[in-house]
## 1
Amino acid sequence: MNTNRIGLSRTAWSLLVVGAALGSTYAGAAERDGTAAARYQRERAVCTSGQSNQDRVTCLREAGAAFAQARHEGLSDGPSPYARNARQRCEALPQDDRQGCLARMQGQGTTSGTAASGGIYRELVTPEVTPPNPAVPLGLPPGEPAK
């Protein structure tokens, strides 16, 4: 009978699928290590050139720690952690200020300063139009009584 052959082909198929999955996982880890290594080299260059706002020893230590974490956990370079952090900071504000905060974090308005100079100042001017006061008639000069 062919039942033995079917069992072997299922086993072989299962081993093939598992092998392919492990191979792709290894390839992803290797790619992540390559990206992490490139990022580490860029951060190290910033540290050694003095362009960081930290002292050289601290900068190199943090770059090394980020590289180690990226190799083990896959540290993300994507914008989503930054955007999530900005949203969380804005959510702590009262409702009236929250929309302006989110707009500034998305790049609206003007930005000045740097972290090295003590902080980044973001400003967004939003004009507010208030309705006229109905108790004061329009067209009269100030101080003249209404007739």
## 2
Amino acid sequence: MPDKSVRDVVDLRPADDQDRELLWLIQCQSLRPAVEATWGWNEALQRRHFEEHYHDCVRQIIRVDGADAGMVAVEVRPDHVFLRNIALLPQFQARGVSTNGWAFVRWPRRPRTFR
């Protein structure tokens, strides 16, 4: 059981095209169990979907204590930011990373009108 009194250092770095295979690995390892249980995993179909939508959003790599641990993907829309996906590699799950690490997240800001 992890020691909850010790906090991991969580930060983000921008993802770039050199991270494509890392992002694919994160997607596969984090989502495959749920997809397999629901529809069955079709590697070719999943890879094609990943490639077709790779540039549809802003992606950042989640780092834990300096190690690449996962990714977060958002779509910046004119009136809001849509969280498309957040995924962690299995060895970083259940450690509070996604719960406790988001106060520092800063996305490109645009002037917004809130109603």
## 3
Amino acid sequence: MRYNRRYNRGSFFALTSVLILLGSPQSQAQAQSVTIGETAVLSAGDNGNGNLLSAQRAKLAQAATIQSLSFYVTAASGKLILGIYDATGPNGGPGALKAQTNSFTPVTGWNTANVITPVSLTAGAYWLAYLPSSNALRAESDHPILM
């Protein structure tokens, strides 16, 4: 798999609305949201990634059920797919796809899309990924490196 890897300090992608299951199925109404990844909007622009899977390593501090993925866009164009991979690839890189969104038309600002199938994840390392269809889609990042 070819992917763009981002330094942890340069995260630009946030996983949001993760459902934490507390105890029995009857207590699921007491679930809380957590995030994984960067939720701050960074200052360096990144574009030119049309049809290139870009990924950011992130740590999930506790077990969770993923419900949606969010991504901040500064110039919207084309379509976008978001996903989360485990870290079982070579040298801890992206491995198995755990969840993804359907393709959607992004807008400027935060874009949140439900995953196709919610999935339970254990605490640990993951890769948050985005796949834009257009080179003109622009997101904020810091220190990208091509792998």
